[in-house]
Amino acid sequence: MRFIVSEGRLIPEVLAKANDPAAKPISHIDSMPSIPMHPEFPYSPELLSFLEGKQLLLEELPFPLDLIQAHYEHGYLSYEKGMMKTKHGWRCMRCGNEEHHFFASFPCARCQTVCTYCRKCIMMGRVSTCTPLVVSRFSFPQDRYLSPLSWNGTLSQGQQRAADAVEDAVVHNGELLVWAVCGAGKTEVLFPGIARALEMGKRVCIATPRTDVVRELFPRLQQAFPSVPLIALYGGSDDRGKFAPLVLSTTHQLLRFSRAFDVMVIDEVDAFPYSVEPMLEYAAAKARKEASSLIYLTATPHPAWQKEIKRGKRKAVTIPARYHGFPLPVPSFEWCSNWRRQLKHRRLPRNVLAWVQSRIKTAKQAFLFVPHIDVLEQVVCILKQLDQRIEGVHAEDPQRAEKVQAFRDGRIPLLVTTTILERGVTVPNIDVAVLGAEDDIFTESALVQIAGRVGRSAQYPSGDIRFFHYGKTRQMIAAKRQMERMNKEAAERGLLKTQ
Ligand SMILES: [Zn+2]
Ligand SMILES: [Zn+2]
Fold first, then answer.
1. Which ligand is nearest to the CA of 125?
2. Architecture of domain 332-492 in CATH?
C-alpha cells in the first residue's frame, strides 16, 4: 500500500479521490504526522477493543479500510512504519530484526516498487517497506479484581522473600530478577504479585520462549485465578488474537502486542532461543507500557547477569533452596578417556558402562545425556545389548512424548537423551550422567539444568550426578560452583532442613 500525505494526515492511495504521483510506501515517508484525539468522535467499540494493546497488519483487522481510516483521522489509532531505515540497512519494527540476511526484496504489487520485507517474522504475515502497522491509541478502563487469588498452598521461607520482592516490583513498576534453583517452586512466587496487579487493574503477561511452558502454566494459573479471564498464546492456540487481563505468551505471539501490559514476566529467560535470540527481548519491550514492571525468572542466569548481580548493578532476589528444604545434589566429575574413539570401536568407556550397569542392577532410573544425535544412536545401540528396554530420545524424535511417558511409567529403565530433556521433565527418583560433559553444548546453564533433574521430590531428595569427561571445562567448574554457592547461601540463611 502507498500513502499520500495531505493536510497533516496520511491517506491510503486507494481511498484518495485522484491518483497522486507523490504517493509513497510508508517507510519512505520522512515526517509522520500526528493527529490529536477528537473526544466527540463516535468510535467503534468493536474495532477499538479488537485493536487494544495490539500492533497489527491491516489484513489482521476484520474491519473496512474506511472505518479504520476514520479512526486514524480522529486520533484513535495510528499507522506506524513496518520497516525503519537505519544507518546500515533496515530494522523490522515488529520483530526488531536488523540482520541483513533476514531481509529479502520482491516486486510488490501493493506499492509497485521493489519492496524489502522481513523474513524473520514472515510466519506472522509479511511486513515490508510498504506495510503500515496499526496501533491503538485508546484504552478502555481496566477491570479490577477483588482478592482474585484462590491458592491455599504455603510458600517456603525462601519463596516468601522472593514473592514480597515481586509484589514490590509490581506496585512500583520496578525491574527484578528472581534467581531460583531448579525445584525451588518459582511459579508460586508470582502468585501474590499477580494478585496485587489484578486488584490494581493492571494487565499481566507471562512470556516465555517455550510453548511447553505456556501449556504447563496455563492450568496452574487457571486454578490459582479462577475468576480472571486468562488466555494462552502460542502457535496453533485458539486464543490467538485475543486479549485478557492475564496472558501467557510465546515470543512470536507477543510480537502482535504494543504498549499493552503493566506487568511483564519473562520466564526461563536463559533458555534457548532467548539467550541467543534477541527477538523475545524486543517483543517484551514493545509489549510493555512505558510505566510497567519487568520481572525475570530463571534458574541459571547468563554469566554476564551473574556478574551484574554480584556488583549490585542488577536488582535480584535468590531462592537458593528447593521447596522441600534439602540441599541441591552436587555433580562429581569423572574422566572417561577419549570416549569418541571408543565409540568408533562400538565400546563405551569402562566407568560409564559400569555406572549404567549399576543403575540397571539396582533398578534406579536414570538419564544419560549425550552431546549429539549421532552419539545418541551409537550409545543406544551399545546399551541395548545390556538391556533391550533402554531407549534414546532427541528433539526430532517423533516418539518423543511416548518415550518420555514410558520413562515416567517406569517401563524404560534408562533414557539416553540430547539436551532437549535438560529442563521441564521431572521424574521423582532418578540419577543423571553426562557423557562428554566437555562438549561446547554443555554450557554452565545446561549443566545446572541437567543436575537440577535430580532430587526434586521430598521423598527422594538426593541422587547421583556424574559428569563423564575427556578434559574438565570452565563451564563444568562454573556449574558445580554455582550449585555449591546456592547450598552455602541456603544454609547461611537457615533455609535448609536441619536433621
Ligand atoms: Zn520482522
Ligand atoms: Zn510494497
1. 1
2. 3-Layer(aba) Sandwich (3.40)
